[in-house]
Write a structure and sequence with these properties.
Oligomer: single chain
Largest sheet: 4 strands, antiparallel
CATH class of the largest domain: Mainly Alpha
Helix content: 25-40%
Strand order of the largest sheet: 5-6-7-8
Number of helices: 11
Structural class: alpha+beta
Distance between the termini: 39 Å
CATH topology of the largest domain: Lysozyme
Mean pLDDT: 83
Number of domains: 2
CATH architecture of the largest domain: Orthogonal Bundle
Shape: elongated
Radius of gyration: 24 Å
Number of strands: 10
Length: 323
């Protein structure tokens, strides 16, 4: 197998486009050959430079598979040595199929198929261990790609299609999503081009507060106030007698952001989870939007879903709100 360094330049958008383009074929191969779709796509990204390397463009070879007993077409590419022989395919789909066959038909990779199909970390480490690539950082690179771009969602899609429920690693029982959150306002204001979560006070239980004249409400057992027109976090902080830095921390916002009218502003730290276990992402939503909607600290949403501040979510993705 190749230690192939895909020299073509690619960026984050290229990675997202690659995931979008090849997710279905990877899920199909997961169903046929029991190889995690997340691993297949991450390998494709790394080995083919998102389909931009010469080997990928001219040979439709997305996995750096060398000739090895190959009787089909070939292409010569400089790799560990000059002008090494690589397999050449009529289509990218055939490269994906041959990648699956390459792993399933060789004894050296037999250990892979003893692993949990949902455990992409062990798959990545065992691939490197069993000699798939010469790059010493290969396993770390695969895991980093999978986690940064939430590629493991493809494995969850496979599992749901096959079994009709989320895997036990993601949820202990089949989820019945009962969204008890209030109906959102039809025309929701925007802040910095992003959807923000607003609320009408009467739809939440109100409470008495000794520290402010503002009306205080509860969401997920966490106190919040509703931003008024022209409010800033500094102004609200003065009204409720807390430091503005803490208020921004409670609401997961940076130093240059301000609330919009009717937006929820939490006045204490949000909870670690929510009784609603799963949220299905809708168009325009961000991870912070989901955090504010359900009153769950953003860092816990990152933790439960193996995401970070650079992760990208898409409509239809399922976000875990508690363990």
């Amino acid at each position: 197998m190749s230690g192939f360094a895909a020299f073509a330049q690619y960026n984050e958008q290229d990675i997202r486009d690659y995931i979008e383009q090849y997710s279905e074929v990877a899920i199909q191969k997961m169903n046929e050959y029991k190889i995690p779709a997340s691993i297949t796509v991450a390998q494709g990204i790394f080995e083919s430079a998102c389909g931009k390397s010469r080997l990928a463009v001219e040979g439709n070879n997305h996995f750096g598979i060398k000739c090895h007993e190959w009787t089909g077409d070939t292409i010569l590419v400089d790799d560990d040595e000059l002008q090494e022989c690589f397999r050449k395919y009529p289509t990218v789909a055939e490269s994906y199929t041959d990648h699956s066959l390459f792993l399933t038909n060789r004894k050296r990779y037999a250990n892979l198929f003893q692993l949990d199909i949902m455990d992409y970390k062990s798959w990545a480490k065992t691939l490197k261990q069993d000699g798939y690539a010469t790059n010493p950082q290969y396993a770390d690179r695969l895991i980093s790609l999978i986690e940064r771009f939430n590629i493991a969602r493809l494995d969850t899609i496979y599992y749901q299609r096959k079994y009709g429920e989320l895997p036990v690693e993601v949820v202990e029982t089949k989820p019945v999503v009962q969204d008890t959150r209030p109906v959102e306002k039809p025309a929701e204001p925007k802040k910095q081009g992003k959807k923000v979560f607003t609320a009408i006070g009467s739809e939440y239980p109100s409470d008495e507060s000794p520290f402010t004249y503002r009306k205080v409400f509860k969401n997920n057992n966490t106190y919040f106030v509703i931003a008024e027109k022209g409010d800033t976090y500094e102004k609200i902080a003065q009204d409720i007698l807390v430091m503005s830095e803490n208020l921004r921390k409670f609401n997961d916002v940076g130093p240059n952001e301000e609330p919009v009218e009717n937006e929820i502003v939490y006045v204490e730290a949000k909870a670690h989870g929510n009784p609603t276990r799963i949220h299905t992402v809708q168009a325009g939503e961000t991870l912070r939007y989901i955090s504010q909607r359900y009153g769950v600290q953003l860092r816990y949403i990152f933790k439960y879903n193996m995401l970070d501040e650079n992760s990208v979510i898409h409509p239809g993705d399922q976000i875990l709100l508690r363990r």
